[in-house]
Backbone:
C-alpha cells in the first residue's frame, strides 16, 4: 500500500531525529481501557527523577489522558486523532515540532485504543508495547495475533480481577508468547503487582 | 467521502432485503471485550422460542465468537474482517448470501470491537446498539461521543465489578444520554442484572 510506504519513510525520519537526540521511544498500544494511561503514569512517577520524560497522548479526545499526564509535572502533547483509529508517523512528526528533543530522555506515546490498526503503523519508536487486561476476556490475544507478533512486550493488566471476569491471565500470557511476543509481564496497575518488573523493563530498555 | 457514499447505497439495498423478508436487524457495537457476545448469547437463549434468530459475527478471527453462537443451536455466519477494523455494508451483503432471509425473524450483527469507525458505516440495520463496560473506565463515553450520539441504545455492562475498577456506571449512563443516546440499560451479563430489561428492549424493537 502507498499509505504504508509513505508512513515507513516518515517513521524512519522520526526515528533518526530521536536517535540524534538520544531519546528512547515507547509506543504503548492496547485495547480501550486496558490500563495504558495508568501504566504510563506509574512509569512517570517512578522514573522522572532519573530521566527527563515527555508523553504524546493520541486519542479521539486527547485532552482527557493528556491532562492526567501533565498532572505529574511532565510535558504531554495531546494528539487529536479524530476519526483516525490509530496514530501514524505523520501525527508523531507534528508532535515532535512541539517538543525540544534535546532536553528529553524518554518519550511515551499512548496510541489509540485498538488491537488491529496500530500494528501496521510504525511511528519511529524503539519499542512496541501492547497492554491487554483480563477484563477483555482471555481469548483476546488469539483474536488479534498480528499485534502480539510484532510487539516487544505484552503487559497482561488488571490481574487482581481475573476471577471476577472469569479470565485466565496465564492463558493470555502463554498466547502472546505463542503469537511471537518475546516478553510478558503480569500486572495490576491498581494494586501494584508487576509494577517493579514493568519499571525495570523500561529502565533496561532505556539503558540497553 | 466516496467510500461512505458507496457504503450508504449498499446499506440501503441490504435494508430493503431485510424489510422485504420481515427481518429485524440489530447492529451490536462496542469496545473490545465489553460483553457483546455474552449479551447476544443471552438474547438467543431467551428469544429463540419466540423468534427464528440468526447472527453474523464480524471480527479479525470471527470463528471464536461464531462458534459460541452456533453452540446455542442457531445459524451464525462468521465474517472475517482481517485488517478492516469495522464491518461495512459490503461485508453484510455477502453475509446475506449465506442466509435464507425468508426463514429468519431477527438478525444480530456483532461488529468488530471498536468505538470509532463502526459509527460511520451503516450496515442496513434497524437498530444501533453500543455495549461498553465499567472496566473500560468511566471516561470512555466522553472520549467517544459520536458513536453514542448515533446509537439507539447503550448498555453499560459488568456493573457487578464497578467498585473493583473504580468506575461509576451512573456517570457512563448519564454521559451516553448527554451525547444524544435516547436509552441506557445498566447490566451485568454475568450476574443477571438488567437482562430482563435488555430482552424486553429487543422484543419491543422487534414488535414495534
Ligand atoms: N481493577 C483494576 N482496574 C484497573 C487496573 N488498571 C487500570 N484499571 C482501571 O481501568 C480503567 C481504565 O484505565 P486507564 O489507565 O484509563 O486505561 P487506558 O487503556 O488508558 O484507557 P483508554 O486510553 O481510554 O483506552 C480505569 O477505571 C482504571 O481505574 C488494574 O490493574 N486493576
Ligand atoms: N464480571 C463480569 N464479566 C463479564 C460480564 N459480561 C462479560 N464478562 C466477561 O467479559 C469477557 C468478555 O466477554 P464477551 O462477551 O466475550 O465480550 P465481547 O464484547 O464479545 O468481546 P470481543 O468480541 O472479543 O470484543 C469474558 O471474560 C466475560 O466472562 C459481566 O457482566 N460481568
Ligand atoms: Mg488512556
Ligand atoms: Mg465477542
Ligand atoms: Zn483502524
Ligand atoms: Zn477503523
Residues:
Amino acid at each position: 500500500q502507498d499509505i504504508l510506504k509513505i508512513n515507513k519513510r516518515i517513521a524512519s525520519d522520526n526515528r533518526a531525529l530521536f536517535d540524534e537526540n538520544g531519546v528512547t521511544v515507547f509506543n504503548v498500544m492496547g485495547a480501550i481501557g486496558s490500563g495504558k494511561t495508568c501504566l504510563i503514569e506509574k512509569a512517570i512517577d517512578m522514573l522522572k527523577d532519573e530521566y527527563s520524560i515527555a508523553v504524546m497522548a493520541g486519542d479521539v479526545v486527547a485532552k482527557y489522558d493528556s491532562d492526567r499526564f501533565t498532572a505529574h509535572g511532565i510535558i504531554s502533547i495531546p494528539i487529536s486523532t479524530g476519526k483516525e483509529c490509530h496514530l501514524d508517523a505523520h501525527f508523531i512528526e507534528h508532535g515532535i515540532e512541539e517538543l525540544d528533543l534535546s532536553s528529553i530522555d524518554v518519550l511515551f506515546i499512548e496510541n489509540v485504543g485498538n488491537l488491529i490498526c496500530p500494528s501496521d503503523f510504525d511511528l519511529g519508536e524503539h519499542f512496541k508495547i501492547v497492554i491487554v487486561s483480563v477484563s477483555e476476556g482471555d481469548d483476546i490475544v488469539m483474536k488479534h495475533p498480528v499485534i502480539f507478533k510484532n510487539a516487544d512486550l505484552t503487559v497482561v493488566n488488571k490481574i487482581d480481577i481475573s476471577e471476577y471476569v472469569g479470565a485466565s491471565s496465564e492463558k493470555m500470557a502463554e498466547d502472546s508468547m505463542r503469537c511471537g511476543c518475546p516478553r510478558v509481564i503480569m500486572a495490576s496497575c491498581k494494586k501494584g503487582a508487576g509494577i517493579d518488573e514493568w519499571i525495570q523493563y523500561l529502565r533496561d530498555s532505556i539503558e540497553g
Remarks:
- Helices of chain B lie at 2-20, 36-47, 63-70, 89-96, 145-149, 162-165, 169-178, 195-207.
- Residues 2-20 of chain B form the longest helix (19 residues).
- Chain B touches chain A through 34 residues (CB under 8 Å).
